[in-house]
Task: inverse folding
């Protein structure tokens, strides 16, 4: 037995000498651990911000008008946008889970608890991203480096700039009377809106400077309105909500 151990030791020493294997310094292991934790955090960061943008989509989307939206050419871009961030959410979460397993104590935590920990981390980052409007920043950055990607507000502007198809949006310029208002759209054109037969949603405030989207019928330079809806979704305000000229703000940013 001792001879076998001695033989094994000699083989190991010979291999070390032959391959010139050098001992790793403590700094090496420290940097490796640092790199692993960095990858864990960046994965959670990516997954969280992807979730934040999906929350942003859901909170700003008027689901009652989703069938109308899906009839437009922009539906492909919308589905592509959702797919991009869904993939980011999944990959960030899975990669974060797997990288954590490679940390010094990663093997100790049970799979269920680790999955729960990753979910909490991703959800926390996503909620913070949505609340701080970092989602808008990341959308614009992705559009800059991936032009085929279109930010959500850009898609909305394109969809609601089709008066010939009965879709129009813009900022209220003037309240003419109880049944007529003037509105400037995203192309700078001024429209007179006939509200005599329109349904005005509860959250709509017909005041100068307010952004609205309307469904109706084009009548030369007038627009016979059937329904008036707020520009933003159920809970969203957006980065241009507090700007005095919201149309120009949206046009400049999207």
Result:
């Amino acid at each position: 037995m001792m001879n076998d151990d001695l033989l094994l030791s000699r083989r190991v020493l010979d291999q070390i000498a032959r391959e010139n294997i050098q001992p790793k310094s403590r700094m090496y292991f420290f940097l490796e651990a640092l790199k692993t934790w960095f990858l864990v955090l960046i994965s959670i960061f990516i997954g969280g911000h992807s979730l934040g943008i999906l929350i942003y989509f859901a909170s700003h989307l008027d689901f009652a008008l989703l069938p109308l939206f899906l009839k437009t050419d922009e539906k492909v871009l919308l589905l592509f946008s959702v797919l991009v961030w869904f993939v980011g959410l999944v990959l960030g979460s899975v990669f974060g889970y797997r990288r954590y397993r490679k940390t010094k104590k990663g093997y100790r935590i049970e799979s269920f608890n680790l999955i729960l920990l990753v979910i909490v981390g991703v959800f926390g980052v996503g909620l913070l991203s949505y609340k701080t409007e970092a989602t808008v920043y990341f959308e614009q950055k992705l559009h800059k480096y991936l032009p085929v990607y279109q930010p959500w507000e850009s898609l909305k502007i394109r969809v609601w700039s089709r008066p010939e198809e009965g879709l129009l949006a813009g900022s209220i310029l003037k309240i003419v009377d109880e049944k007529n208002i003037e509105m400037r759209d995203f192309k700078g054109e001024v429209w007179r809106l006939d509200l005599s037969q329109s349904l005005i949603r509860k959250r709509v405030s017909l005041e100068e400077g307010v952004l609205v989207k309307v469904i109706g019928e084009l009548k030369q330079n007038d627009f016979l309105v059937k329904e008036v809806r707020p520009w933003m979704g159920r809970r969203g305000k957006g980065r241009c909500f507090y700007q005095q000229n919201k149309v120009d703000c949206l046009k400049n940013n999207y």
In short: The chain is about 50% helix and 15% strand.
